[in-house]
């Protein structure tokens, strides 16, 4: 029995592949972004700013089997069912690398349109935790340097006291014992989790926060140590594990996944950071600079070797969850992210890919309205809270000048002077699906145009 031509075309062997990386720290919105992007590419009624969709050149989009047999498939159907089911809820976030392949059929345009037939493009969307990118800075450090750096900043960070007390009680002459090693690693991990929740981004090693299938393995059972413990039995074993973490965990990730990416979107929960306060904003900016460093490796470094001549061509930094703000405030959110990106670029001395900053909501969970407050009309948003109640909400006025936030953040301020910025956890809105339309969003189509539009 023969295979129909459709099937052969569907397999699309030999068609060009564009790999789009989606990253961001935990809870930045990666899972929601990919789910909504795919749904909105399959049903393109809300994708006006994606030019190929608007002018009809994008004829068809369909899901393909995941081409890499050893990488988990992004569980699109389950996440979409969570977001758009009768009781919509947020899906579970990213815990490891996953991937999904979409195929796009494009009609040629312009002078040659009569001569050429349609062409296919495969879009491989690769989802990975931003925490893993931040591990890049570990690669240039040895265990002693990393320990010194981490221990210096630890006293000011949440949840560190128990860990500091535990290493204070360690005896440099004691034999190595696995339960103690685990105890230290657990306390250090507990601190990392607390620091992450309080908005700190530079929490390494990143796999301690999102261990995936490596949970409990020796490569993830170490912790930073002060100089007097480095040469004892514990110190020597932790140094070995640290090196193993670099060579067996960090390096393979960059070699197998990161090195193959063509376009990248970095999702940043700017509103969440502003809500946490100046330290979280400053820390987010530093994390952005670190992420940029990964995309412009030095010529001689190990990463440059892995990447060869391959380069990411476009990087979009997207401030997510913009549906927490009335649209009149979106330009200010964009301006803040743009200023953070500019500072991050300066700091990373970045001259690589084309970069852009944008405020988006992958899934719009709110509607807009004005609310009266102390004789004033405030532009607000309304949505369903996680407990089912409806609420209208004004997050606080973002400043027109981003410097009003970024300057005190850089100066080490611990709280905002004038304002408080609130945040609310809205649930996805029910009943928003319309035939031919994907889920409602804010500027997801513009994000797609920047990321892949030139290849359509
Ligand atoms: P991940 O850890 O980066 O995969 O993050 P998720 O995609 O799981 O998103 C984390 C949480 O952020 C979700 O559970 C939602 O509460 C919220 N969120 C993500 N995207 C949006 C959005 O577009 N609008 C709103 N209102 N909330 C969002």
Parts with pLDDT < 50 across at least 5 consecutive residues: 1-10
Which H/E pattern describes the elements? Answer: HEHHEHEEHHHHHHHEHHHEHEEEEHH
Radius of gyration: 24 Å
Q: Which architecture of the largest domain would the CATH scheme give at its second level?
A: 3-Layer(aba) Sandwich
The name CATH uses for the topology of the largest domain is Rossmann fold
Report the bound ligands by name, code or SMILES.
Answer: guanosine-5'-diphosphate
Total helices: the number is 17
Strand content: 15-25%
Explain what the structure shows:
The chain has 456 residues and is α/β, with parallel strands linked by helices. 39% of the residues lie in helices and 16% in strands. The protein contains 17 helices and ten strands. The strands form two sheets. It has a seven-stranded mixed sheet with strand order 2-3-4-1-5-6-7, sandwiched between helices. Strands 8-9-10 form a three-stranded antiparallel sheet, with no helix packed on it. A hairpin with a 2-residue loop joins strand 8 (366-373) and strand 9 (376-384). Helix 12 (270-276) packs antiparallel against helix 13 (278-295), helix 13 packs across helix 15 (330-348) and helix 13 (278-295) packs across helix 16 (403-410). The longest helix has 24 residues, at 233-256. The model is unreliable at 1-10 (pLDDT under 50). It binds guanosine-5'-diphosphate. Guanosine-5'-diphosphate binds next to helix 2.
